């Protein structure tokens, strides 16, 4: 049956993704089950979406309760689930207001328009946005200019907006751009996700924030992948002393349903007026209800605090494998439940390794061709961590042995 679904997928759906050879029938807790009934430990989590795994009681309860109330009413009316979620996000981050959208790309598009509205209200002339090398901020025509990966932005039509690029951790380069080019905003991911799971240092983030303040430039944190507890705090910037002007969120916030948006700090919270921006499903009341359920689980049920201990166990285990197999592993980096293991292997060898791990019932993503990307649910159990480390050790040992025979 799995082959039939794969063939139908190839026939009727445009090939914008390199599929893994799996057709998923159901999901439960931290596992996906294919159409043959085989279980897979899910370390993809829908690319950082399913922070509570699958079928979490809080999410199921909210799904039923809101589903029995209403699914959509239009944003011309007040939806209590959305108001409640916005209030809780503000209280957990910084004073301001929330704009809801459907996805991370939409959140970024909204931020670009908000920067434009803020810029037009300033006396001094500023234009453009600074981004970090190898960053990822979306695939739409607006956000694609902000994404710094040639394989993604290719030669699609360009939106007429200056974009300046600077390497991560290069404070001097950022200072020169702010001084010479007079941009309106700086946008950065606290952990470069698609760019290889590269955490920014606290020092760099705080220096960047200070530079933005001194040049009257908006400081924007893209927390679309790092948010909702993935790094051990609700948002990754909260590991630092930084207070951004805008925070982008999506992925994990909707409990598995599409939801995104931004938190606008006091400097920009009132720059959007009726007619300036909008979206039909912004937000879906059902997605907002699930967002509240996610926050309930993270804070009231202690999932966020317990995930920090599991993340430390996972990271320590991966670091041990790095030391044990230096001929294969080039290092481990990341933050919380967002980790990358860089391999000293050719890309085709990494694909073969992932396929073997998949055969053994574990789903792991690959980014930048040679980095195993671990995005487990925050509900990952100790026994599941130990199983993962055992499988990885056996596979890495086999690879190391093969290299020594060559």
From TrEMBL:
<dbReference type="InterPro" id="IPR005814">
    <property type="entry name" value="Aminotrans_3"/>
</dbReference>
<comment type="similarity">
    <text>Belongs to the class-III pyridoxal-phosphate-dependent aminotransferase family.</text>
</comment>
<keyword id="KW-0032">Aminotransferase</keyword>
<keyword id="KW-0808">Transferase</keyword>
<dbReference type="InterPro" id="IPR015422">
    <property type="entry name" value="PyrdxlP-dep_Trfase_small"/>
</dbReference>
<dbReference type="InterPro" id="IPR050103">
    <property type="entry name" value="Class-III_PLP-dep_AT"/>
</dbReference>
<dbReference type="InterPro" id="IPR015421">
    <property type="entry name" value="PyrdxlP-dep_Trfase_major"/>
</dbReference>
<dbReference type="InterPro" id="IPR015424">
    <property type="entry name" value="PyrdxlP-dep_Trfase"/>
</dbReference>
<protein>
    <submittedName>
        <fullName>Acetylornithine aminotransferase</fullName>
    </submittedName>
</protein>
<dbReference type="GO" id="GO:0008483">
    <property type="term" value="F:transaminase activity"/>
</dbReference>
<dbReference type="InterPro" id="IPR049704">
    <property type="entry name" value="Aminotrans_3_PPA_site"/>
</dbReference>
<dbReference type="GO" id="GO:0030170">
    <property type="term" value="F:pyridoxal phosphate binding"/>
</dbReference>
<dbReference type="GO" id="GO:0042802">
    <property type="term" value="F:identical protein binding"/>
</dbReference>
<dbReference type="Pfam" id="PF00202">
    <property type="entry name" value="Aminotran_3"/>
</dbReference>
<keyword id="KW-0663">Pyridoxal phosphate</keyword>
